[in-house]
Amino acid sequence: MSNPIVAAIATLARMRRVDLRPDWADRAREIDGSDEASLDVVCQTLGWAPASRYEEAPRAHEFPLLVHHPDHGWAVAERVENDNRLSIVKEGISTTWQDADMAHLYDLVIPLPAGRQTFDKAFDVFKSAVFRRKRAIFFAILATFVVNFIALITSIYSMQVYDRVVPRGAFSTLWVLTIGAIVAILFDFILRVTRANMLEDDAVKIDTEVSEFFFSRAAEVRLDARPQAIGTTAAQLRGLEQIRTMLSSSALFALADLPFALLFIFVIAKLGGIIALVMAISFPLAIVIALIFARLIRENTGKAQVSSNRKNGLLVESLDAAETVKANRGQWFLLSRWNHLLEELHASELPVKRLQAMAGTIFGTIQQVSYICLIAWGAVEVFENRISMGALIACSILAGRVNGPLLGQLPQLLVQWTYSKISLRMLDGILELPVDRPADVDQLRPSRLSASLQLVNVAFAYPGQRSGITIPRLEVAAGERIGVIGGIGSGKSTLLKLMAGLYAPAQGQILMDRLDMGQIAEDLLRAHIGYLPQDYRLVNGSLRDNLTLGLSDPGDDAIMEAAHGTGLINLITAHPRGLDLPISEGGRGLSGGQRVLTGLTRLLLAKPKLILLDEPTANLDVDTEALVLRRLQASLEPDTTLVLVTHKLQLVNQVSRVIVMANGQPVLDGPTADVLKRLKAVPTPAPKKPPQVADASQGAVA
Ligand SMILES: Nc1ncnc2c1ncn2[C@@H]1O[C@H](COP(=O)(O)OP(=O)(O)OP(=O)(O)O)[C@@H](O)[C@H]1O
Fold it and tell me: Which parts pass through the membrane (predicted)?
C-alpha cells in the first residue's frame, strides 16, 4: 500500500475499528495521494461524504484524525501535545511532528458497513433513511399544503364567480380572479414537478440504503443461527418490496390529506352552515368502517403471506435440487406440495380480495350518498336564503376533496398497510438473529496474528440436536500440518467450521494466537484464514470474480501463476473467454473438480496463515490430486498451519499429526505414524462420553 493517503486511511480505519471493503484500496489506488487535494478525490471516488478541515483545535475525544503536513504528507494524528507537537502514526510507526500548527487535521467519516449499523426494529431502518432526507420531507409537506390550498382557492373562486360575477356581469373582477387562480395553479404545477423529481431521487437513495442494510445484515447472520429454509429467508427479504410499494404508493400521499379533510369540513361549515353536518357524519363514519375492515383483512393477509413464503421456499428448493428431483421422479411429490400451498394461498387471499372489493363499494356509496344529501339540503338552504348559490357550489367542490381521494384509495391502502406490517415483522425476524460480530462488541485488531489455535472446553450442537461436538482441549501450534479423519457424520466438517470461526461455540472458547476468535475483527480473521468447504460453491459472475472474491485485486500475473499451481490453467486456456469465463447463478457451469480447483487457486492467491481444507481432493483425479497437493505444500510458509479433513488415508501421509474424530469428539490425536499404527492395531476407540450410536464407518478409517 504505497499510496500515502491510502495507507493513512487504512491506519485510521484500523484505529477506529471500522471494516473497509476488501477492494476499497483498488479504487483509490489510481489517485496520486501525496498532495492535500487528493483527499477530496478519494472521498468522491469511494462515494464517502467529503472530509471537513478543522479550523479550531479538535477536542480530545475526536482523535484519531487524518492529518496532512506540507513537509511530511499524510498520517494519522493521535493527539496534540502541550508543546505544540503532534503525536502521529505513519506507516505503522508512532512519532511526533514538531510544528503542529502547520498540519491540517481532517474530520473524515469512514462509513460503517451497511449491516453493522444497529437497529432494533425494521421500522427504525426505514425511519432513519427517510428522516435523514429532510429536503424530501419538507417538499412533501409543502406540496401537500399547496395541493390542498389550491382546492380551497378553486372552491372560493367558483363561489365568487357565481355570487358576484354572474349576477352583476362584473367582468373585471372575473379577470382578476381568473388570473389569480391560474397563477396559483401554475405554482402548484411547478411544485408538483419539482416534488416528483426530488422525491424520486430520494426514493432511489432510500431504497438503496435500506436494501443494502438488510442484504448485508442477512449475510452477517451467524451461519449456525441461519434459518434452515433458504426460501423462507429469501421471502423475508422480499418483504422489502411490499414496504417499498407502500411507501411509494399514491395512496400514502392521500393519507397526508387526512388533516386537511377536517379543515375542509370546517370551511364547509363556514360557507354552508348546517349542511356541513353531512360531511361531519359521513367522513368519520367512513374512517370507522375502514378501521373495522383493517381488522378483518389483517388475519387473512397474515395467512396469505405465510403461504406465499412457503410457496417461494418450495420453488427455490425444487429449482436448487432439480437434478435429485428429476432423477428420483420427485416432481410428483413436489407438485402435490405446490398445489396444496397454492390452495392454501387462494383460500386466504380470496377473503382479502372480497373484503377489499366490499370496502371499495361501501366507500363509493358513502361518497355518492353524502354528495346527494349535501346538494339536496343545500338546495333547501339556498331557497330559504340562508346560503348563496355560490356557497353551495363551493361546498360541493370541497365535499369532493373530503371524500374523494382519501376514500377512493382507502381499500388499497388498507391491504398494503397490513401486508407491510407483516413484512416489517418478518424483517424484524432477521434483525433478531445473532450476527457474527455484534456492533456493541469492540473488535480486536492485532497487527500480527499467528496461526495457532486453542479449543478449550468447546461444545457445539446444531439447532434442534441434542448432541454435537465436544472438545475438552485441542491445541494447534503455528506451522503444524494436521490431518483430521473419522467416520461419516463424526463431526470433522463441524470441527473445521468451528476452527474457521464460521460457527460460534455454544460453550467454551476458541482462541487464535491466544485471542478469542469471536472478538477478532471479521475482516482480519477472514484475511488470515483460508477455508475450503466440502461443497465449494461459486457465485454468479466471471471466473476472475470468483478467484478474487473478497481479495484486493492481485493482478492477472499472480492469478495465472496460482492457476498454474493448481492446474486450473488448463480450464482458463481452453476457454475462449479465459479468466472471464462466465459462471452462472448457483455456481453452475463448472465441474465439481474445477470448482475445487477454483477454490484452491483463490486460496493460493489469498495466502492465509491458517488453511482449513475439507476433503479438497474428493472430486479430483489421482494426477491432479498429486499435483495440487505438491504445489500447495511447496507454497506453504513454515509458519502456515494446515488442517486437512479427509477420508483418504494416503493423504494422511502428507501431514505430521492426525486427529481421529468419532461421535463429535477427538478420540485419537498424535504423530501420524503413531496414530496409524494404533488404528491398525485396534478399532477406533469410542469416546468416553456421552455414549452414542457406534460410528458407522470406523472400518473405513482403520
Ligand atoms: N447444517 C446442519 N444442520 C444440522 N445438523 C447438521 C448440519 N451439518 C451437519 N450436521 C450433523 O452434525 C453431525 C456432524 O456432521 P459433520 O458434517 O461435521 O460430519 P463429517 O464428519 O464431516 O461427515 P462427512 O465425513 O460425511 O463429511 C452429523 O450428525 C450431521 O448430521
Answer: 136-157, 169-191, 246-268, 274-294
